[in-house]
């Protein structure tokens, strides 16, 4: 492996690999910074410092994991025979703390990285590159930046209820503008982490949030029971009652028509801007949510 661009780290166990990833800015983290909104910096900080609960996966990630070797084989057979399935961590020798784990890597005879492959499964067919979720494209640009590869084969499989319906691919080249944006986000994240002050909540407040969560759950259950009793009482017919103390209404919503704001903005951008009016300044909002055990 050429020391000019990146070096390869190998591990004996998945746990070692997970621990090593925390030391670096990975493609997943950088894609989150690029697309994840205002909360991305804190999420990345917590991921890198082991403060977040690890994602346990779901049926979709399990399916993607199972199909990954099939998609890598497709990329090797149809695009570049040098591609080899990989779970190794590639660390940049030019960008501090930058790393990635491509699904497949193809090297030149001198050991430098020539081409990558990224395997994805999708419920929605990607007919053109613009259909690909942005986070995947940002991930790939970070991988290209870290490894110095000339291209990445984004190979994807469309499925319906986990039944394969076909494989296709796009060839993604390095995008200078996107990579410069990623480097700027990296610099901002470093500054954020250097100045980070860990938010802490006294146990008293945490206990109160937990108590509130239980009361809300009990209230929801009581509300559901009461609604069911009222529906049974009225026979499911529309109904309205009101006095000085209480109001009860059962109504069947009418079909709604929704104005397609995003489509209108694309079709008539100038007209859209004429009628955009700034809203009131938002007030501070407090969100209380208990995430632990009851």
From TrEMBL:
It comes from the Bacteria. Residues 205-232 form a coiled coil. InterPro entries: NF-kappa-B_Signaling_Reg, PDDEXK-like_dom_sf, Restrct_endonuc-II-like, YqaJ_viral_recombinase. Keywords: Coiled coil. Residues 16-150 form the YqaJ viral recombinase domain. It holds the Pfam family YqaJ. This is YqaJ viral recombinase family protein.
């Amino acid at each position: 492996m050429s020391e000019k661009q990146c070096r390869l780290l190998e591990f004996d166990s998945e746990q070692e690999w997970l621990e090593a990833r925390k030391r670096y800015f990975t493609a997943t983290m950088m894609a989150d910074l690029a697309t994840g909104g205002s909360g991305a910096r804190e999420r990345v900080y917590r991921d890198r410092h082991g403060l977040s609960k690890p994602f346990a996966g779901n049926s979709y990630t399990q399916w993607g994991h199972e199909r990954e070797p099939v998609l890598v084989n497709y990329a090797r057979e149809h695009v570049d025979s040098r591609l080899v399935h990989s779970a190794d961590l590639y660390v940049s020798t030019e960008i501090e703390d930058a790393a990635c784990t491509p699904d497949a890597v193809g090297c030149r005879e001198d050991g430098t990285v020539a081409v990558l492959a990224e395997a994805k499964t999708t419920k929605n067919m990607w007919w053109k590159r613009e259909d690909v979720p942005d986070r995947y494209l940002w991930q790939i640009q970070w991988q290209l930046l870290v490894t110095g590869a000339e291209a990445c084969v984004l190979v994807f499989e469309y499925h319906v209820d986990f039944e394969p319906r076909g494989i296709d691919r796009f060839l993604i080249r390095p995008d200078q503008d996107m990579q410069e944006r990623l480097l700027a986000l990296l610099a901002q994240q470093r500054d954020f982490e250097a100045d980070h002050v860990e938010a802490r909540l006294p146990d008293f407040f945490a206990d109160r949030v937990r108590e509130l969560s239980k009361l809300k759950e009990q209230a929801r259950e009581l509300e559901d029971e009461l609604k069911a009793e009222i529906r049974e009482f009225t026979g499911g017919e529309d109904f309205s009652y009101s006095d000085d103390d209480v109001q009860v209404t059962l109504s069947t919503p009418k079909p709604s028509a929704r104005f397609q704001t995003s489509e209108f903005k694309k079709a008539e951008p100038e007209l859209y801007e004429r009628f955009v009016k700034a809203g009131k300044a938002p007030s501070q909002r407090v969100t209380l949510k208990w995430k632990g055990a009851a």
